[in-house]
Design brief:
253 residues, alpha+beta, eight-stranded antiparallel sheet, 33% helix
Length: 253
Amino acid sequence: MFDKTILHNYVVKKTAILTAIVSLFLVGCGSDQNYKREIDGNEDYLNSPALKPLIVPKGMTIPAEVADFYIYKLDSKGNLGKQVDIRAPVVPIPTVSDSFVIYNNGVVTFNSPLSADVWNKIPNTLNSKNIPISSSDNLTIKTGKAFIVRADETQTAEASFTFKRKIVGDTQTITLSLDSLARGAEDISSQPIEVQRYVVGLFNSLMDDIAPQSFREPQVKGSNENEAKKGANKDTESMKRIKEDLKDQIRGK
């Protein structure tokens, strides 16, 4: 007779095996972040044959060469195909009222009122990112090397940073820069896009940690617009002059 128990056990075992295989595929897909950096399309153009000289049979005349239609031979330099990183450069976004930020040549320069107490909140952000502090005082914070996890990278990078502060009147200017940046055995500290990605990324994490609740909620039209206009008018002329002077100094570097 047909044994239902044997059939049931067979189905269970087969289902378990298929589940395990599918799980392995899902884990592989989950850890592969290349799709976030690569363009999705056909790459057959990379296999296009090189142009060959035109061979003219004897007895045949051809039009004279015209420079307008001449095709110059170019040697490709840089990455091609899926090696091209399509991610846009990240930009610093301040979340503190009466502040501004500039990114230039590997350094984030952030100016804000002393009352915002940004400097004393930096250690909390570093701690949340598992970035150790090697030394600190009232004007400088240096970190040790730490692995920085990014959702768009398969391999983590190891980096160390320096925060510096300068107090001018009732404002403070904080700069954030890299001390080192490496991915595996490769030193990538000389790659501008990579430097910008990790320096600005850490700054935006700080800004996200200290952002007021109003930045996390959608703005409601009406009375909120009037309040926003009143808040904008609180910026004094002296504050505006300090900001413009700092911007000019930074751009002049």
